[in-house]
Amino acid sequence: MSTHSSRRSFLQYAAAGFSTLAASRIALAQAPAEPPPRALQVENAVTDPVSVEVNARPIPNFEPRDRTRTRFGSLEYRSGLVLTSPYRGFGGLSGIRLDARGERFLAVSDQGGWFTGRIRYAEGKMVGLDEVEAAPLLGAEGRPITEKRLWWDSESIARDGSLVYVGLERVNQILRYDFARGGTRARGEVIPVPAGVRRLPSNKGLEALVVVPKGKDHSLPLAGTLIAFSERGLDADGNLTAFLIGGPTPGQFSVRRTEKYDISDAVLLPSGELLILERKFSWFTGVNIRIRSIPLKSIAPGALVDGPALFVADLGHEIDNMEGIDAHVTPEGETVLTLISDDNFSMLQRTLLLQFTLAE
Predict the structure, then answer these.
(1) CA dist 241 → 257, 302, 307 (Å)
(2) How many whole angstroms separate alpha carbon 48 and alpha carbon 341?
(3) How much of the chain, in percent, has pLDDT values that exceed 70?
């Protein structure tokens, strides 16, 4: 039996027997019968700025069962890496944002840490990470946010020029950082959020942030708006709640929930297409992920938005607990999607960095 098949079988059929060991946030409160919640501790928090060694192993095929296949729905597989590090605080990566070239990255871990660095490419494929540094997210007083009770669960990230927004799930707050004032050493400022955000479930709350840029024709109705998505905060009809913060038309809207998927991240493409990364988990089927496309123009206060699935994958593919997505456009005009997984600091999971070309 292959290593991949063994890992998949173990996760699908024996996970319940290891729930005490594995019940970090891979459960994500998404199983019909949910495992015990994670202990309230930050044992892997980044405490000081530090350079980090990261090792990368290539993933040549996204579907090991059929190594000739490269097309998956509307996506074409480009390359992938399994990332490991001797640094204890490396992991739990829940959001990522790349520069316009898809090289420099800014990622956030769910234990209050920044990770920055550069993706190294060879012939268009990712081959490693360079210049990786970790630093703690700081609060307004200049101290790590992990010193505050429940403020360690940093799950989402959005960038608007030098301004970086980070969503904290347990307390459902949003911090704004001005990277022009020290980069990852900048201090975070709590921004006002709608009352509905504060009422989200503590472990199914803020999970994805997207900034609609100003000056784009397709984004004029929402220009300057911060869109905040909940993981599984439900409206009266059982759909996923989301919020328009700031901008010309602040308010609340819903994303149609289907097949028990929950939101884990989102990214806005230059075309005006909003892609939502979703996942679901059960002890019987393991992890499933998909990417849905939502027209930005359909989003407005009070709206219920929906869109087709562009991509679906399960544990028969090289996935894990995929929590982050971003996009960049190559000089050749290709739209490349980058996905990253949160390993929950569990020996049963992996930190994966995957790239696909949006084929249509």
Answers:
(1) 10, 10, 15
(2) 23
(3) 87
